[in-house]
Amino acid sequence: MHVVVLGGGYAGVAVVRRLERLLPADVDLTLVTDTPDHVLQHELHRVIRRPAVANDIVVSVPQATDRARIHVATVEGINREHRSIDLSTGELAYDYGVVCLGAETAFHGLDGVRDRATPLKRIGHALAIRETFFDVIESTAGRVRIVVGGAGLSGVQVAGELAALTRETSVADRTTVTLLERLDTVAPGFPERFGEAISQTLEDAGVEIRTGAAVTGADDEVVEIRAGEPVQYDQLIWTGGIRGPETLGGDRPRVGPDLRLDDGTFGCGDAVRVEDTTGELVPASAQAARREARTAAANVASLVRRDRTETADKNGSLEEFQFRSPGWVVSVGDDAVATIGSRVLTGAPARAAKATVGATYLAELGERRRAIGLLRTELRADVGDSNDT
């Protein structure tokens, strides 16, 4: 019996760690990932202003797992009918599989934007944003115009980080950071009061917000806006949505509450669109991916048990996923906004909540030294020394 998990992001690592506990020891478990590094995506924006943060948000996949075999390769195709995976290193067969390949930045056919903007999906992207920032500051004599396209949580955090960087480098008086959003609110799809608090915090940080600004293209000087004046820019960052991985043809297939793509294959995390037991689509996020992973792992383990005990009903009910978020948190430079239940927090309580999210996750992976390092960055305070890893 061979169980294969594709992808070493939040969902993939969580599925594997759970299956290591749930599966019998004689069931082979393989994690296929294109890199041995697991990156905390929700902290990538910090690298723009603090490159050393990269040391705290990159975790070794082999160290984060136990008995699973780690196979470093690129997934080139999935033949679900034959339960086989085409890898850059050859073919891999599976009895049960979980697709957790994450998502890529969606440019929505806007070739001009794709050719000129920097996305934020990898450490290299964050470092490129930082390098471009300093290049345009040095090469531009007059006002510097930085534009971030897409006001989801990622775009909010990038805009906040860049605004803070302008203040730290004493160029805020000649720099404009503009956040564009095609819909009518910042953080669309999240609670209204949360979005309102984010907007206020961004404005307090000096970020110019333009909602109802649907981007239709870009050239070397301006971003074109449908039914609006073009926006001039010197640096362009794009966080305007996600698409499925190339392996899935750029699609994010829809799965129901049991997370099944077919009888032997499951999907969770950003690679798929999850409809939970309420019939609602679950927001693509780290917290959702980790919660979906519990259901996917439980269902794989259940099917393995049925196979091994020769249970007659192979199509019996499986666990179904219902998304219950404890809240949301987003950083805006050195500030933050959080929701806990119906409450919206700003200031020190929100900053503490933001710091806790990443640090707790690292600690769960056994990375206490990195957790403390991230706490220092988030809280900008000395929280003690540790040599633990």
How would you portray this structure in words?
The protein is α/β, with parallel strands linked by helices and about 400 residues long. It has three domains: about 1-35 and about 75-105 and about 245-310, 3-Layer(bba) Sandwich (FAD/NAD(P)-binding domain), CATH 3.50.50; about 110-240, 3-Layer(bba) Sandwich (FAD/NAD(P)-binding domain), CATH 3.50.50.60; about 325-380, no CATH class. Helices cover about 35% and strands about 25% of the residues. The chain has eleven helices and 25 strands. It has helices at about 10-20, 45-50, 55, 60-65, 110-115, 125-140, 155-170, 190-205, 285-310, 345-365, 370-380; strands at about 1-5, 30-35, 35-40, 60, 70, 75-80, 85, 90-95, 95-100, 105, 145-150, 175-180, 205-210, 215-220, 220-225, 230, 235-240, 240-245, 255, 260, 265, 275, 325-330, 335-340, 345. A six-stranded mixed sheet has the order 5-2-1-9-21-20, with helices on one face. A hairpin with a 2-residue loop joins strand 20 (about 260) and strand 21. Helix 10 (about 345-365) runs antiparallel to helix 11 (about 370-380). Mean pLDDT is about 95; it is low at about 380-389.
State the strand order across the main sheet.
Answer: 5-2-1-9-21-20
- Look at the structure and name the CATH superfamily of the largest domain: FAD/NAD(P)-binding domain
Average pLDDT figure: 94
- In helices, the fraction of residues equals 25-40%
Task: Tell me the number of structural domains.
Answer: 3
